[in-house]
Amino acid sequence: MRHRYSVLLFPLHIFVDVLCINAAFAGSYWARFGDVAALTELPYVTLWAIFNVSWLLIVTITSPYTFPRQLFKAFPLLRKLARLVAVHMAIIAVYCVFIEGIYYSRAHLLMTYASFFVAGSLFRIGGLVFLQEYRARGYNDRRYVVVGYGKMSKTITRFYEVHPEMGFHFAGYFDWPQPDTADQLTGDYRQLPDYIRENRIDCVYCCLPYVDNTQLKAVVDQAETLDYQVKLLVDFRGFLARSTSVEYHDFLPVLTVSSQVLDDFRVNFPKRAFDLLFSAGVLICGAPIFGIVALITAITSKGPVFYTQERIGRAGKPFRIYKFRSMYTNAEQTLPLLSQGALDHRITPWGHLIRRTRIDELPQFYNVLRGEMSIVGPRPERQYFIDQIVELAPEYRNLMNVKPGITSIGQIKFGYAATVEEMVKRLRYDLLYPRRRSFLFDMWIIAQTLRVMMQGRGR
Q1: Burial of residue 58, with CB atoms counted within 10 A of its CB: 0-12 exposed, 13-18 middle, 19 or more buried
Q2: Which residue among 216, 256, 325, 349 is the one 20 to 30 A from 4 at the CA level?
Q3: In sequence order, which residues have a C-beta less than 8 Å from that of residue 252 and are 6 or more positions away?
Q4: CB neighbourhood size of 174 (10 A)
Q5: Which uninterrupted H or E stretch holds 169?
Q6: Strand pairing partners for 347?
Q7: How many angstroms separate the CA atoms of 40 and 57, rounded?
Q8: Could you give the 3-state DSSP secondary structure of residue 173?
Q9: By the 8 A CB rule, do 157 and 146 touch?
Q10: Longest CA–CA separation in the chain, Å
């Protein structure tokens, strides 16, 4: 594979790590005892040799210096370094126990590993920053083409446009031309092999929704001859965040997709118990505030104190959501409309205030008590807008598997949406919730929501 990884990175990593581990060993000994004379004595010479041999043995077996560009980031680099250090510590510990090495200083060993981890981390972070900047400037690049043209084909090109530090440069789309796509294509399948050879293409992305098996087989069969890598793009967006498992029928992998979220007792029971206790406490202790807000709402504009509206809950079940009314009556006489924030003439002056402080949402704790909502969860929407969102982002259906909430990640990070496009952007945050659900995560979201309320950043 052309340029799959730089031939210089592997020996450079080994050289720097060995240099760091030896400098850490000698430097820690000097820091602990004030001189390095004893390092020339047999016990420490042997330990020093074991340090180097065991490290080289570990890196030879585990090959820790080969990273795909997509994973060449700070956290994976430091995590792998930490694992290497832990394995090395275990080997040295076994060696010391085996020889009953009471001669060796534990403080010296701990200082060695600490300083080595710091030095190794600084080298990795520095190398990461350098390579990302180097690749962003157009050097050490990888050229790729996309085979099969359609809506999903553009997702991979947009990804690499947003991440120039990965060094992937787009070289064209290839497919059979159609009247509406011919101007977007660089060529067809017959021209693909010559184009790859002449332009030294490193990677070919095949979008499976648009590529038939015959063309895919041809692309794969030519990969070794033309020296390029084949990557498959499969459209799992509509269901991959659900409960999935892989079964193997002999050598054939079968993906099992469940339409229901796993009922994890450790998550659901404390979450529901907290919802009930917290909601009951808010409704009881906040009754005086509710009364004041209701009175001001009634005085400042004509109409009912509370506003109800049909929303779609878990599993597509509709329910009535309750809020303090913040708009004038009959604000939506035609089609459903989204709030335009401070510029929305439908909102009353008092309504602007209770929206900024999220006070208008407080009656929804009644929905929580009824089991229709949770305190934390993706915001419930109207069916009219759900239909539009699903057309742009099919993965929205994943949020229907969890109970909607009063507050969410999207509400904190993005806020209210004024258009369907903004609702889709907010969706990117809310999609994190089903996969990260936990009691502590809910507490963090609630704390962030209180901060937003105190700062008056709602609308």
Answers
A1: middle
A2: 216
A3: none
A4: 27
A5: strand 168-174
A6: 327
A7: 24
A8: strand
A9: yes
A10: 93
Under DSSP, the state recorded for 315 is G
Q: How far is CA 304 from CA 262, 324, 330, 402, in A?
A: 40, 9, 11, 31
In sequence order, what DSSP letters do the residues of 163-218 get, joined into one string? -GGG-EEEEEEES---TTTGGG-SB-TTTHHHHHHHHT--EEEEEGGG--HHHHHH
Give CA separation, 77 vs 13, 68, 105, in Å: 12, 11, 30
Cβ-in-10-Å burial (0-12, 13-18, 19+) of 419 comes to exposed
* 8 Å CB contact between 369 and 335: no
Cα dihedral sign for 138, 142, 147, 153?
A: negative
3-state secondary structure string across 12-55 = HHHHHHHHHHHHHHHHHHHHHHCCCHHHHCHHHHHHHHHHHHHH
- 38: amino acid identity, one letter: A
Residue 3 CA to residue 194 CA, distance in Å, equals 20
Q: Does pTM surpass 0.70?
A: no
Assigned token pair, 184: 């977007």
Q: Do the Cβ atoms of 140 and 197 come closer than 8 Å?
A: no
Contacts of 325 (CB under 8 A, 6+ apart): 297, 301, 303, 304, 305, 306, 307, 351, 360
Copy the structure tokens of residue 152: 């999903």
SS in 3 state form for 131-162?
HHHHHHCCCCCEEEEEECCCCCHHHHHHHHHH
Amino acid letter for position 361: E
pLDDT in tens, the chain (459 residues): 444 445 566 677 788 888 999 999 888 888 888 877 767 777 778 888 888 899 888 888 877 766 666 666 788 888 888 999 999 999 888 888 887 766 778 888 899 999 999 998 999 888 888 877 877 777 778 899 999 888 778 888 888 888 888 888 899 999 998 888 888 899 899 999 999 999 989 899 998 878 888 888 889 888 888 888 898 887 665 555 445 556 655 556 666 665 444 455 666 788 889 999 999 999 999 899 899 999 999 998 888 999 898 999 988 899 999 999 888 887 665 556 665 555 667 788 888 888 888 888 899 999 999 999 999 998 898 888 888 888 888 888 878 888 999 988 888 888 777 788 888 888 888 888 887 788 888 888 888 888 877 765 555
Amino acid sitting at position 342:
A
Q: Which residues of 344-355 are buried (b: 16+ CB within 10 A; e: fewer)?
A: beebbebbbbbb
Instruction: Report CA-CA distances (Å) from 340 to 131, 188, 194, 272, 301.
Output: 44, 46, 53, 33, 20
Amino acid at residue number 404: P
